Amino acid sequence: MKGVSTSRTIIPLLRRIRRLDVSEYWIAITGAAIIIIVSFMAILAPVIAPYDPIEPVGGSLEPPNTRFLLGTDNVGRDILSRIIYGSRISLSIAFLASIFSMIIGASLGLLSGYIGGVFDTALALIMDSMYAFPSIILAIAIAYVLGPGILNVTISIGIVYIPVYFRMIRSEVLSVKESLYVEAARAIGASDRVILLKYILPNVTASLPVVFSLNATDAILTEAALSFLGLGLPAPTPDWGFDLRNGYHFITAGYWWTVTFPGLMIIITALGFSLFSEGLNEILNPRLREV
Amino acid sequence: MPMNRTIISTINLTKYFPVQRGFLERVISRKIEYIRAVDGVDLEIREEETLALVGETGCGKTTTGRLLVRLLEPTGGDIFFRGRRITHVKGEELRKLRRHLQIIFQDPYASLNPRMKIGDAIGHPLEIHDIAKGKEKRQMVLEMLEKVGLTPAERYYELYPHQLSGGERQRVAISRAMILKPDFIVADEPISMIDVSLRAKILELMADLKKEFHVTYLFITHDLATAKYVSDRIAVMYLGKIVELATTEELFSNPLHPYVKALISAIPRPGPKVKRERLLLKGEIPSPINPPSGCRLHPRCPFKMQICSKEEPKLLEKERGHYVACHLY
Amino acid sequence: MSLLNINELKVYYFTKRGVVRAVDGVSLSISRGEVLGLVGESGSGKSTLGISLLGLIPPPGRIVGGSIVFDGVELTKLSDDEFAKIRGKRISMIFQDPMTSLNPLMKIGDHLMETIMVHENVSKNEARERSIKALEEVGIPPERFNDYPHQFSGGMRQRVMIALAILLNPDLIIADEPTTALDVIVQAQIIDLLDNLRKRHNMSILLISHDIGVVSEIADKIAVMYAGHLVEMADANKILEDPLHPYTSALLRAVPLIESKSEKLYYIPGSPPDLVKPPRGCRFHPRCPYAKDICRTREPRTVNIKDHIVKCWMYCDAYE
Fold this sequence. Notes:
The complex is a heterotrimer of chains A (291), B (329) and C (320).
Chain A: H1 10-18, H2 22-43, H3 45-48, H4 79-115, H5 117-132, H6 135-146, H7 150-177, H8 180-187, H9 192-204, H10 208-228, H11 240-248, H12 257-284
Chain B: E1 6-18, H1 23-28, E2 34-46, E3 50-54, H2 61-68, E4 76-81, E5 84-85, H3 91-97, E6 101-104, H4 118-128, H5 134-147, H6 153-158, H7 166-178, E7 184-188, H8 196-213, E8 216-221, H9 224-230, E9 233-238, E10 241-247, H10 248-253, H11 258-266, E11 316-319, E12 322-324
Parallel strand pairs in B: 3-8, 3-9, 6-7, 7-8
Antiparallel strand pairs in B: 1-2, 1-4, 4-5, 9-10, 10-12, 11-12
Chain C: E1 4-15, E2 18-30, E3 35-39, H1 46-52, E4 61-70, E5 73-74, H2 80-86, E6 91-94, H3 98-101, H4 108-119, H5 124-137, H6 154-166, E7 172-176, H7 184-201, E8 204-209, H8 212-218, E9 221-226, E10 229-235, H9 236-241, H10 246-253, H11 293-297, E11 302-305, E12 308-311, H12 313-316
Parallel strand pairs in C: 3-8, 3-9, 6-7, 7-8
Antiparallel strand pairs in C: 1-2, 1-4, 4-5, 9-10, 10-12, 11-12
Helix pairs in contact in C: 4-5, 5-6, 6-7
């Protein structure tokens, strides 16, 4: 089994999963579990968070105690509640940004690879230049230009990853374009549009799920970084990166809980996505162990 | 005997491919070299016949096949379909033409879209040419599946190529080509990648469908024995040119061109070991980029004469219906 | 005294899908200087048999039973190091695809020389001399000694492979579909070359092919495999004129001949068997026109009728 296309191959995928043994999917399961837990945290935030994340509800910098399980920050806000609500921000930005990148990057890659010629060369050059930048730097630059706000942060992160999808899809298109079944499609009279949508597109989306989750991993980290640098979301919004920044000032004085817990959340969530993408890759593109 | 009307003809059909050069080469030298894949081919294919196009690597038979169904555009010469010049048709006109000219490829593992159900793949031509949609299309596909022996048809309709064997996939490819009831089909080595014990089945299917749909075949193969079995007439190609053309019986009972004689004698025979005298040619097929001057076989030909390296022999009718391009005649 | 004696060899591949019984109890022998043609279609196990003689079975495959005795040595019990001494020197192999079998970064002359020097302690000069001689023997002029594989055509590359194979004067050459990727005329040249070489050096050849025609050109004996079993083996002329096993006769009828006795070409109904779950009893029975009840339940015994070996119930009763 070669890969997964975006819609039709759930059944073969399930069949493949049934034939797996534990050693092959524990990574994906672990990753998926983490993602699901954090997602629930985000969805059920209003229900499970003990306090309002924006209002000061306790004393300043209280250590973890029975009232505030993870302590409070300098303004007196409950860190646990902030973390729970923060998951909403991180996850939604990560998903939205990744989807944005994927749709734009993949579409451009598809068109560029198929059309070829000067258009393709020019676009590829632009994309390669963008790709050459370290993602954080590029994100910072774009975020700075766009200004703060959830939408802008999403767009900044989204733009940064467009070249990744572009390159991947374009190279697949270049090879699929030459295959015999595309020639056969031409021979039966299919138009370029039909060939692109029915013969090429379904055959180049194999690696998308994996890249998407890798993307999401990076998006989580980049979003946290942007907030950490103050380029992300405005002040009282519960956000892990922001809290990290905030708590940063107080570590030296011994108030470790202000930094540790937001930091842990970032790590765990990123790890979850990372494990999931690795595990998914193992499942979909298994190493050739069989003859 | 097939009807005498000509369905496809070519005059001086030529296709050259520029040789890919590296960046440095392009900067240093202006001269572009060409692979002369097809170099002046004159053919007349008659309605409802099976013409075999035989040759070894680099002879141009595959390129000729693709030219005739206009998957490639000729560099020179002309192609006519039922008297109409189709050499340079494009766009919508070309698309409409495709209803009548179809091709079956050699590799059944690569010619089907891996992400398309068998039923959808076979029915796609019907959709493209606005012949049938939805239920009607499905019905026509199911009928086709029955005809080619992929039964139960409903089951095969839903399968994907990777779930089928090579022979089954080739039958799907044949269905896809036949569903439009085209006038002319190029079969490019359709059985060379099928198991030996199953080849005759495919050939039988192709023969049955030919009778039913009144199709004309151009059967491309490197195997003379298969050509003998399926064809009415055979054209042998060497390095982009036709060297001999005759009815099948004539070609085998009275081969004229040295290359054809060599081909016939080189065929391995599963018979009791009799020490046969082989007519062997020296060396190997030269590159089609710089073919030998004059007659292209001359460096290897045991009957080479002075004139052979100087002047290219023309394809002339030596006996009725038997054409040969050789200075011996 | 035979050079190679394979007895009840079993080679299985342990895949996720199940156990593929690629070679399932095959016995045959090759004498010195003899050419044995091994014929079979895809999935017959013929290639697996070939590579098992060199200890090159890729995982997840391995030999699970039987023996291979080569000149008195039991090959199945050798370590990889011990096998390395035999590989190339006493048993060598020619593969199907000359494009991918030669190292593209190595001049063919160097390749030949290295092969000699790995196995024998000789000077570079002597290695070079012997390499040039080997190239001449296969019809490659010495000027091409320093060329790279991509500078040769398919047929010439195959000749280089043959030169590599005969370099150390092996006793046995395994040729796995050596001409399948070549044009008909070149194929004839290569087959003739192999015939000449083996006569000159008194080598044995195991010629593996799906093309019974190619095999019959130079084979002394022909063995036919189907679904991991050896179904028939006899002197080449005998088997071609008078095949006993239904599969062999069906195969011969499926091949178009230039001088054909009959006009019709036959195919074998059904499809090649699944080697993970082969048919019960005789593996050919679903496609056999003569199948009886016993064929569907019990695997046929192999009988030897005056040096004509056949594995079919039709011949077991008479020669119990």
